[in-house]
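Supplementary Methods, section 5.1.

A reviewer requested that the exact input to the structure prediction be made available. We therefore reproduce it here, unchanged from the version used in the analyses.
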Amino acid sequence: MVCREVMDRLSPFLDDELDPVASREVSSHLATCPSCAAALGRQRKLSESLRRDLEYHRAPDLLRACVMRVARAAVRREGARSRPATHQWRWLSAAAAVIAVVGGTWWVGTLTRDRAGDLTARDAVSGHIRSLMANHLTDVASTDQHTVKPWFAGKLDFSPPVTDFAAADYPLVGGRLDYLQGRSVAALVYMHHKHTINVFVWPVASAREELAPALTEQGFHVIHGTHAGMAYWVVSDLNTEELAAFARMLAARSGKP
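The structure derived from this sequence is encoded token-by-token as follows.
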């Protein structure tokens, strides 16, 4: 199993969702690959941080009462059929699970906009690091925007805007497919004075135009913007002033042919 395959399986491996054979293959690779092992460590820290820092809201009492009432009624019906007590206990266990799931949905649904943005920023930085570590910066390597943009056709359900900024010393070097926030996205790759810049792009429903100030995550700078129906997450170790200048050029060119 190669690094790229392992990187794609780190999250289900961490959640113990892989079949035994795949799990053993990932474990064997991690034992001999420091880069992938470090990536697993970062994902584990992120998972622990989410459990520790995100706000938790208990499911409303009315909801809990409704679920338990349905469960007890089911237990009584099963009891009338002389089913074993263990079967009745399963109903109550299932009810508790339903409450936990609903409570979890309630918890996720109350994320503030800023907190959701923080999660996306972490995901974008992880994608940036992954592309550098696994030596998989581009699927299509080209400085020609008219080569990179058509490459995405048929691979995504949208057409990402692609512009070469070589005249401003931010040349396009290629693009690749990536996966952020539960969906496939376009990753456009630029360089500036030997600094790699990843630009993750996907469509958004919001019509609001914005360019947020840079934030820092794991030592990398991240700038988020929305323009012309697209969300942009720009990630690099480049200094914030030059990265912000690039993000402004990117927003100015978005939506133009």
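The first helix runs from residue 3 to 14. These observations are discussed further in the main text.
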